[in-house]
Write a structure and sequence with these properties.
heterodimer, A: alpha+beta, 22% helix, globular, B: 371 residues, mainly beta, Methylamine Dehydrogenase, Chain H, four-stranded antiparallel β-sheet
Chain lengths: 99, 371
């Protein structure tokens, strides 16, 4: 499966990527499998989206797709087919919290 | 002629300011890492082109950046800061136990001898070390597991280990300071520690002369006299002549002895600088006049240095890591403000001029004197 991922501006700069990137996922497409693939290809992103030890999503980072907030779904829950097929992107969002 | 490189960390990025030894004309490079909080940047004494930077964000956590070309290019290195073993608790603001939780790196202190060896002081307070140029970090847990650690409490800025001073003479000796626990010294390469706060008095804690609990803002040392330490505490400017075994107040005639930074002249170990701030709840200079105070007697007798600094309507702050000196003669003194100015005095404080005036709030200033 080729999944589309959109990162927030600061992480795009850090990883030196464009607005949207594509990741090949061999297993079931979940939050965890996307982040595993993302961090494997862009190791500088480790620790910026989820904790490196606990794997918990950072508090001010949210995951959106298909006009839904999936942040509180299980990281191992299959994502919507539209994400898995690449019809819709998986959005990593920096929460609106001032600054 | 020597060159000067000033490393500036701000709330929204890093800047590198360079000049020749006259320190009159400056080139400004940046923002690097725009939008990120740059808590500290520091160069290796062993390789001045090796720089380290602490890059932090409430959204995206902690990164460490490294440069091998004096700040022209940077690469992210290791950012995995994991406490060694059970973390236990310290006290929260309300006095209840609170689990140790890594937030950010406040201070980076490269080894004098090895560009790949560097210490990091973090929040919640702990000391980390890297021996591979920042690729991997390991905690030196003797400090965080000190018997007093359960009673440590955060200062207003968080429970941060903000100052690391490596003794250039006594092998294995280093000093650190934590807000609001106080100063600690190790004589065995950070394996064991003991608090060295005798003589400090802080009315804001239940026992004003307690062994730990003091909100030490900064300590400074001149390399030629490592047993002499100067301290800017929450209130009070202090001095120790016995490597921290005892402290005495040297606030003398300062208009207020609250402040954050303190530093020592590069060639005169009895000449020290502070920036008095009105109070702990009014973080700006008294009377709207920004003045550095200099003592040429190691404290007690202070003179105001105001030439070139704003003397009306000035309500900026100068944070703890935002003052530094160069090694030229005459000694240059530098500081940055929360209003985004970085000032230089090329004559040891007599005259000041802004290098830049409109940066984001300045958090840290370090200076490199280059051949």
């Amino acid at each position: 499966m080729t999944v589309r991922v959109v990162l927030p501006s600061h992480l795009r700069t850090l990883a030196k990527v464009d607005h949207e990137l594509k990741l090949d996922i061999a297993e079931t497409v979940t939050q965890r499998s996307i982040l595993d693939a993302l961090e494997a290809r862009y190791p500088m992103l480790r620790g910026t989206i989820r904790d490196q030890v606990t794997q918990q999503r950072r508090a001010f980072v949210r995951f959106f797709a298909c006009e839904e907030d999936l942040s509180h779904e299980s990281p191992d829950a299959p994502l919507p087919d539209a994400v898995a097929t690449g019809a819709e992107p998986f959005l990593v969002i920096g929460a609106m919290a001032g600054g | 002629m020597s060159r000067i490189r000033v490393l500036v960390g701000t709330r929204k990025g890093a800047f590198v300011l360079t000049s020749d030894g006259k320190r009159e004309r400056w080139d400004v490079s940046g923002p690097h890492f725009g939008g990120w909080e740059m808590y500290h940047l520091k160069g290796s004494p062993a390789d001045p082109n090796r720089l380290y930077a602490s890059q932090s964000s409430s959204w995206f956590g902690q990164l460490i950046q490294r440069s091998n070309d004096g700040g022209k290019t940077w690469e992210p290195v290791g950012n995995k800061f994991v406490y060694d073993g059970p973390t236990g608790t310290h006290l929260w603001y309300d006095g209840t136990p609170h689990p140790w939780d890594f937030a950010r790196v406040w201070h980076l202190e490269p080894s004098a001898a090895d560009p790949d060896t560097i210490y990091a002081g973090v929040e919640d307070a702990a000391l980390f070390k890297s021996r591979d140029g920042g690729q991997t970090w390991h905690e030196l847990p003797g400090l965080r597991t000190h018997a007093s650690a359960q009673s440590w409490q955060p200062g207003a800025g968080g429970m941060c280990l903000h100052t690391i001073v490596l003794d250039p003479v006594h092998p294995g000796r280093l000093f650190i300071a934590i807000s609001a626990a106080g100063v600690f010294r190790s004589d065995d390469d950070a394996k064991t520690w003991r608090p060295i706060n005798r003589g400090l008095r802080s009315e804001q804690i239940p026992n004003p002369t307690a062994e730990v609990g003091h909100c030490v803002h900064r300590i400074a040392m001149h390399r030629s006299r490592p047993n002499v330490l100067f301290m800017q505490k929450h209130w009070d400017v202090m001095r120790s002549d016995d490597a921290g075994e005892s402290w005495r107040e040297v606030s003398g005639n300062l208009p207020t002895d609250f402040g954050f930074p303190i530093d020592v002249h590069a060639h005169e170990p009895e000449t020290i600088y502070v920036v008095p701030i009105k109070s702990d709840s009014e973080h700006y200079p008294p009377d709207g006049k920004l003045r550095v105070y200099r003592s040429r007697t190691g404290g007690n007798e202070w003179e105001a240095l105001a030439r070139g600094l704003p003397q009306r309507d000035c309500y900026v702050n100068v944070l703890r890591d935002a003052m530094a000196v160069d090694a030229l003669d005459p000694c240059g003194v530098y500081f940055g403000t929360t209003g985004g100015q970085v000032y230089v005095s090329p004559d040891a404080g007599d005259n000041w001029t802004p290098i830049v005036q409109h940066l984001p709030a300045v958090v840290a200033v370090e200076v490199q004197t280059l051949p």
